[in-house]
Amino acid sequence: MADPELIALTSSDFPLIQNIARYYEYDMSRYCGHLPGWEFPLDGKYETLILEKNLKRYFQDKQRYPFLIRVAAHPAGFAMINKIGTTAEVDWNMGEFFVLATYQRRKIGQFIAKKIFQEYQGVWEVAVIPENIGALKFWHKIILEYTEGAFTQELKTLNHPEPHQMRVFRFETPSKQHINKAKLIVDFNPSKDEDAFIQEQLFSYETKKLIKETPTHFSVFLKTKEGKILGGALVWMHTESIYVQAIWIEPTLRGQGLGAKLLQKAENEALKKGCRYATLDSNYQAVGFYQRQGYKILGEIPNYIFSHSKIYLRKELNQYEKSQ
């Protein structure tokens, strides 16, 4: 079975949650039936109870966040989190959480709950109706495992939607705990491993969250028969473009068109892989060279270093291909 998915919802998705909520409200009526407003509707439909009105707020209030739980492209439940706790220091509160009966006892709820805690770091509260013994055991087990026992729980009277007692679990996510104990350190002599770690973590985040791809690194070298490097270009290839990180030519060989040949070789390789653009950044001394190779200036950061600017350029490779 594929991992369950957590899908952020918009106002257009409310009808779906409205349909799922009927099963949720039916389940919750076992524990809330004694509360005012939970009487079984005269028309036989769970559509007018307090719970559904509360769910609708998650599609209207900026402090509330609705999610669909999905398994193999099918709705399996929902999770509703908000930033409204019993005290001001609370960052996140698990407002509503429901897994449809057919998906229960398959560790789907456990997977999604921990995923939410991991993605939304901070001080958390999870409030559970004391009569709901199954939910109490579920949340106690998950929070105990996730925090390794570093949590509190107490019985509190909450006023929404009507005054009633709730068992409130509170804990800090591990990252939040580390932040509280961490120190800011300025290091003018960082190790290569420390710098590499930051770059690797940033690359990993961008790959997973933003880029959704793994770029390919390649180099183009100018070498003698003996293998001595006389020049080279360092390049990163993405789905639609390449980024030319650096070009270097042995100083005694400059002015002979070798830099242009290195760049053209890299661009040709990019075209073979279906790339449409080449991008790079440079200083004012080399801008003329890149412009002669067909690059156009996109932007400039003045006084980037020692009053010199950093200039960003791009070239449309399709135009280059047609000219060959």
Q: Summarize this, please?
A:
Helices cover 35% and strands 32% of the residues.
Report on the structure:
This protein is α+β, with helices and mostly antiparallel strands. It is 35% helix and 32% strand. It contains nine helices and 13 strands. The chain has helices at residues 14-32, 50-57, 108-119, 133-147, 174-181, 192-211, 258-272, 284-292, 317-323; strands at 5-8, 64-71, 74-82, 92-99, 123-128, 151-158, 164-172, 216-223, 229-237, 241-249, 277-282, 296-305, 308-316. Helix 3 (108-119) links the parallel strand 4 (92-99) and strand 5 (123-128).
Attribute tags:
single chain, Aminopeptidase, six-stranded mixed beta sheet, elongated, 2 domains, 324 residues, seven-stranded mixed beta sheet, alpha+beta
- Tell me the radius of gyration: 29 Å
Number of domains: 2
Question: Taking strands numbered 1, 2, ... along the chain, how are they ordered across the largest sheet?
Answer: 1-2-3-4-5-7-6
Helix-strand category: alpha+beta
How far the N terminus sits from the C terminus, by CA atoms, comes to 51 Å
Shape field? elongated
In CATH, the homologous superfamily of the largest domain goes by the name Gcn5-related N-acetyltransferase (GNAT)
Number of helices: 9
